[in-house]
Amino acid sequence: MPPLHRALPALRRIRLANNTFQQQSSRLGLQHTSRQAVAYPLAHQIRWQRTASRSEGEGQPTPSEPAPPARSGSKNIKYTSESYPQMQRDSRFKELDKSDVEHFRSILGESSSAIIDGVTQEASNEDLEGYNADWMRKYRGHARLVLKPESTEQVSKILKYCNDNMIAVNPQGGNTGLVGGSVPVFDEVVINLARMSKIRSFDDVSGIFVADAGVILESADSYLAERGYIFPLDLGAKGSCQLGGNVATNAGGLRLLRYGSLHGNILGLEAVLPDGTILDDLSKLRKNNTGYDLKQLFIGGEGTIGIVTALSILCPQRSPAVNVAYFGLQSYEKAQEAFREAKKQLSEILSAFEMMDGQSQNLYARASGAKLPLEEEYPFYCLIETSGSNTDHDSEKLNTFLEHVMGEEIVSDGVVAQDETQVQSLWACREGVSEASQHWGGVYKYDLSIPLPQLYDLVAEARTRFEESGLMSKEDEGKAVLDVVGYGHMGDSNLHLNVACRRYDKAVEKVLEPWVYEWVAERHGSISAEHGLGLAKKEFIGYSRSETMVKLMKQIKNFYDPKGIMNPYKYI
Ligand code: FAD
Ligand code: MLT
Ligand code: ZN
Questions:
Q1: Contact assessment for residue 428 and residue 29, using Cβ atoms and an 8 Å cutoff
Q2: 149 and 119, same structural domain?
Q3: Which residues lie closer than 8 Å to 333 by C-beta, 6 or more apart?
Q4: Mean pLDDT of all residues belonging to the chain
Q5: Do 62 and 109 meet the contact criterion of CB atoms below 8 Å apart?
Q6: Its Enzyme Commission number (predicted)?
Q7: How far is the CA of 199 from the centre of ligand 3 (A)?
Q8: Does residue 133 belong to any structural domain of this protein?
Q9: Atom of ligand 1 at shortest distance to CA of 134?
């Protein structure tokens, strides 16, 4: 990373505070070599491990997590069945017995890495908790059996048996989902794809990458980086989430602004239908207009119509010149102006435009112990990334942009990363908000598409509601809510409203729901921009989709999964 601040006159005008910032970077004690991982230890929380950095090449399994990380203290997480007593186990589903487990063993073998058996054996709760409890510590199921197939054929045999015997299943990847879709509600069998972690092929002319669903996103990206390419999706959980989970949630993330959604990038899928049929649509074609594009139903299908076992995806060339800047701004209006200017002046090299409010940055600093990059505090912050192929060209553009936004007082202060460590530290200020939000016990999360001019109004109104409710205090441990923060992918009009809390409390939920959904529907937004529906949004789909569309979705679900064994109690 070139020392831009020395080369560019505009950057000298920004009070870079480089000495302070460099000291901070080393004090942060970054444990991760890529920017995507959150860079501070939180004692009682899941540690989102980076995978070992390199894959072995085609046909070899990439390093994968042996299991979703179980949190210490997960016993304190309330069972979903207790938090939502109105939900009843569907009595049509079979309760597992010894014969079922024996059958699964005949498919998967005896290896302890293939089956975690709490049905016929004494698998400890700890063994099972990492698969039963979700990342937010909000949802917890009662699964007693986890199956970890290592081939598509095994997935097919498992699903066929489950379908024939009315056994409910919960497909699972890295268990980083944020809507309660990744963990069971009752005793559904967890089918975890972690052992399906082979990269199948990569063509360095076309950029087409084919891999198993269990490959961890960061492993895929590292593999591609070595070959000059980039995975067109990036998100904070990249060290744990799997490609299959990304497909199933149609994850958006930090690169969508530049590379578009998975609906456009995925060229083909291999999936297993509930009755065991293998759907081989692992096309490597960019153009294929022969009939309905069925793979699109699995992208964002959240494991309700089948299990994704592999994907083929078009990956772009990795940009050699990357710059990251972090700004302080006086208002949300200024953030909008900065975005307009960034698009105008940085145009094709703009690869991320993220917004964080002051509260979110304070929360991050409090949870992590990190010092924020700027000396003063501001009500709003933006993070801009540029990625291009020509350092001089990019620098010139960035220079002009910075001169303009500083000169016009759109931006009040800012820093530009000078090296990879600083790139990571700046990104940590953005990506660390997720983990910081639930650092004190839990978080109510709303992931919304809202027209840009009104995007931040929701956060301000939510904060007022909590101030008036008497439920919120930064200091008083007796209050359930700590703070209300807003941040997100401003470049995609995608707001994350987080209510950081000390404990989950129905009184807090009542302040937020259905108010948030009504607010968004009135502005023709979406109640789920990128995290999906899962259990959390199931009841609220009507705020974003018409009755006709919900009816069609139910018909699709019934067509693919007539017995309803796939991820029941969720989605629609
Ligand atoms: P899981 O959590 O295991 O599962 C998610 C859903 O997909 C479940 O419904 C599950 O049943 C289903 N599923 C999983 N694997 C398969 C499969 N092979 N076949 C069929 N169904 C399957 N999301 C964003 O969109 N943008 C972000 O920027 C973003 N940042 C995040 C940051 C953090 C710190 C965390 C914890 C999460 C973030 N997420 C983000 C949420 C996001 O949905 C997930 O991180 C990721 O896409 C889920 O992948 P996973 O492998 O963990 O899937
Ligand atoms: C993000 O953008 O950080 C993610 O979507 C996760 C989150 O909101 O917690
Ligand atoms: Zn997001």
A1: no
A2: yes
A3: none
A4: 89
A5: no
A6: 1.1.99.40
A7: 26
A8: yes
A9: 2
